Amino acid sequence: MFKKNAKPRVIGIILEEIGTDFSKELIQGVVDAVPDDRSVRLIVLAGKYLNPEIDSANMLAYKAVYNSIFRLDEICDIDGLIIHLGSMSTRKKKVIKTGYSEKFQRIPKVFIASDIEGETVVNYDNESGIREAVESLVNVNNLANLCMLGGRDDNIDARARKQIFIRCLQENGVSFFDRNYESTDMSENCVDEALRLLERNPEVQAVFCVNDSVARGLYEAMGQKGLVPGRDILVFGFDNTRMAGEMKPPLTSIGADSCTLGQKALEVLLAKLDGKKSYSAFVPTRLYGRESMNYDMYDYTTMEMLNVNPSFIYRMFDDCFYRYHTSRLRREDVDLRRLYFEFIFRMLQSMKHRYMGPEEFHSLGKMIDVFFEKGAMEYDIIPLK
Fold it and tell me: 239-242: long-range contacts (C-beta < 8 A, 24 or more apart)?
């Protein structure tokens, strides 16, 4: 444990915009990654991207906020920074690298979803999840009419996801034309863009949305046309935010596999602060299947179930309640992973011996009730409110 009187590390999280599900989960990922043996204080500073051609009246206020963020060294002592600036990261590369005080430049920093040369960055491995989705659509579902609702040209992930999507389609023998693509501002306010895409492509079979927010806009556009996601058109997004599981129908989405962007960013930054060598990193991704695009993520055999192997049971839990291992748990919380093992192990044993007594049945029922009462579904693929 850390020393009681040890000075905590002060880490700032700078965000382009705080109101999105992506930003909220990024912050939560950083919080969940704080080690129990470290004293860390987190400060969140958020701005908002304004297009100077559209929002010129607000640019003065915008610049004041933006400049204040980069005067942090005059406001408080910051030990390290985790920075996600979205489009501003591309537009302000020169400013970020050379335009501010020497002290600010010396603060250890980790950039998220950025390509600033010479800086430590943490990015998604966009390709692994997109390739998994495309190969399923083309080779399993035999689909050929695929479209994409993309993002802004000044957003690194939007550019990468478009390029990767087109390349994966071509590698699987599917053509992609200009009419199959429509750009958006990467928010749910993209209904008009979604309608244009649907009207240009009346035979579309599946749509890849650059993020989950854009998928929400597509859902509304499809509703206006009497189309149902997952039935009339398959839909999948990116980021696998909680919003994806709460949409109706729940949205299939590509998301982090083993750890989140926030967790990896804090891990890399703490290594920097400890004087260790730290490198830019990629977070692997995978496809999380839901009703908008059925995708079987699991492959369990009858023999695995009959063997009642503990590692198999824990793998089932990790597959179904994948958010659990990336969440920050309190000491007083029930160990849901262990509880799951207990009742699944006994159920599989009973199945193997083809018998379950009334006392065992009653005991398992109580354990399962506790499992769900203690919030298991918060960590599921489709979180319940």
Answer: 239/21, 239/22, 239/25, 239/211, 239/212, 240/212, 240/288, 241/21, 241/22, 241/24, 241/25, 241/212, 242/21, 242/25, 242/383
